[in-house]
């Protein structure tokens, strides 16, 4: 249980957040983060460049960095707008010049966002050693590249008809999708046109109320979301393990690959239920970190004490309820509840050293490994009560 997870997008859509990465690190044995420009810049803005390097250097984390951006290009023609799925990267800037390398491109983008030049050079040099660079256009993820594969998905009418409903309803929010809604992609070689009755003026108004910089929405926004979902399917199949992405993208992927995300949906639900029951209404780890009630440095302290908890999780069967296993383990009685055990507890508790009666092994009373075994073994509630609860609720406001 909780062996490996791949993190790509946050539950609400944008780049993965530091809180979600932190929660994954606490529960999973191995965490693989797929970063692009947006998610990397989001992490830097949240915790700073040096803490990003600390994060990506942790032993249980692996990182893939994708330099390219993806989207739908629109070209106005005499017959109406034509669209195409594209991946691209910035190769230069009119005020800076040409970017001769990936390193210079990342440096220029960070400096243009106001970061100190010397800090940027230090960060980029270290960052390059923490990540694996991959391209969307080559055959690494899938033969022919991700854009070609996504284009095949986009030209499947039955899939697009259902997947576009998911995206449209998400954009409409509380407004209902029309019962006669349709969204059809009409291929024309590598480009395509779209026939739809979706009210994009209404969608634009809804989205601009949330973000004044949202701009005008068009069919390209729908096809870009379908592109993201196709990439998600390919990433999940390539890397294996559980796959963490946005709710909307998850719904689309499930239309495409019904069972692909099943294991992660179970684990996501298990983590949520586990925190709700064991922490009794306290905020989640994701919430306290993303809301800056706890710092990244404080989380690293928590993570450093989580080894036994993660080993306990690793030993749980995927078919076993996490809550049931937790309750069974914390209520199990050890051999020291017997009378002879109580005597030995006193001997060890009051001595500088003791002789273990079965093997004759001389030990120190402070030997944590021996005492773990001696006093009925470590129990997961010790970590939850002494470490996690104070972390998510330091003042006891949620008791």
Give an account of the 3D structure.
- There is one protein chain.
- This protein is of the alpha/beta class and 399 residues long.
- The protein has 18 helices and 13 strands.
- It has helices at residues 18-27, 37-47, 49-56, 102-112, 117-130, 146-154, 157-172, 200-210, 219-239, 247-256, 262-278, 285-290, 296-304, 307-314, 322-331, 339-349, 368-374, 380-392, and strands at residues 4-7, 30-35, 61-66, 69-77, 80-88, 92-93, 97-98, 132-134, 183-188, 191-196, 242-244, 353-355, 362-364.
- The strands form five sheets. A five-stranded parallel sheet has the order 8-3-2-1-11, sandwiched between helices. Strands 4-5 form a two-stranded antiparallel sheet. A two-stranded antiparallel sheet has the order 6-7.
- A hairpin with a 3-residue loop joins strand 6 and strand 7 (97-98).
- Helix 9 (219-239) packs across helix 10.
- The longest helix has 21 residues, at 219-239.
- The protein is globular and about 75 Å long.
- The model is unreliable at 334-376 (pLDDT under 50).
Radius of gyration: 26 Å
Oligomeric state of the chains present here: single chain
Name the beta content range.
Answer: 15-25%
Largest sheet: 5 strands, parallel
| Separate helix tally | 18
- Overall 3D geometry? globular
Give the rounded overall mean pLDDT.
82
Structural classification: alpha/beta
Unreliable residue stretches: 334-376
**Biggest sheet: strands side by side, in what order?**
8-3-2-1-11
Quote the distance from N terminus to C terminus: 30 Å
- Share of helical residues: 40-55%
Number of strands: 13
């Amino acid at each position: 249980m909780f062996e490996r997870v791949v993190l790509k997008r946050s539950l609400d859509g944008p780049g993965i957040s530091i809180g979600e990465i932190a929660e994954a690190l606490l529960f999973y044995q191995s965490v693989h983060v797929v970063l692009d420009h947006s998610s990397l810049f989001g992490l830097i803005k949240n915790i700073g460049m040096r803490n990003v390097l600390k994060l990506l250097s942790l032993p249980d984390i692996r990182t893939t960095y994708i330099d390219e951006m993806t989207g739908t290009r629109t070209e106005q023609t005499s017959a109406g707008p034509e669209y195409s799925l594209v991946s691209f990267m910035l190769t230069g800037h009119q005020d800076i010049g040409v970017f001769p390398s990936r390193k210079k491109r990342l440096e220029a983008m960070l400096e243009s966002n106001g970061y100190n030049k010397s800090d940027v050079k230090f960060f980029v040099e270290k960052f390059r050693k923490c990540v694996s660079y991959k391209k969307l256009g080559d055959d690494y993820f899938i033969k022919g590249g991700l854009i070609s594969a996504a284009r095949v998905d986009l030209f499947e009418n039955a899939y697009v008809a259902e997947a576009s409903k998911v995206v449209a309803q998400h954009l409409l929010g509380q407004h209902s999708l029309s019962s006669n809604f349709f969204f059809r992609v009409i291929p024309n070689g590598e480009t395509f046109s779209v026939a739809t009755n979706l009210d994009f003026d209404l969608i634009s108004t809804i989205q601009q109320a949330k973000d004044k910089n949202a701009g005008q929405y068009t069919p390209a926004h729908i096809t870009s979301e379908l592109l993201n979902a196709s990439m998600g399917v390919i990433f999940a199949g390539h890397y294996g393990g559980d796959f963490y992405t946005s709710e909307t993208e998850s719904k689309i992927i499930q239309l495409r690959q019904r069972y692909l995300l099943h294991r992660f949906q179970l684990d996501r639900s298990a983590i949520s239920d586990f925190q709700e029951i064991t922490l009794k209404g306290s905020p989640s780890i994701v919430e306290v970190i993303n809301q800056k009630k706890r710092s990244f440095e404080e989380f690293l302290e928590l993570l450093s004490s989580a080894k036994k908890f993660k080993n306990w999780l690793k030993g749980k069967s995927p078919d076993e309820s996490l809550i049931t296993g937790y309750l069974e383990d914390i209520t199990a009685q050890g051999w020291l509840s017997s009378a002879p055990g109580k005597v030995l507890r006193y001997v060890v508790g009051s001595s500088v050293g003791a002789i273990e009666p079965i093997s004759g092994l001389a030990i120190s009373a402070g030997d944590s490994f021996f005492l773990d075994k001696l006093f009925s073994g470590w129990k997961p509630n010790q970590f939850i009560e002494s470490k996690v609860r104070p972390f998510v609720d330091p003042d006891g406001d949620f008791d």
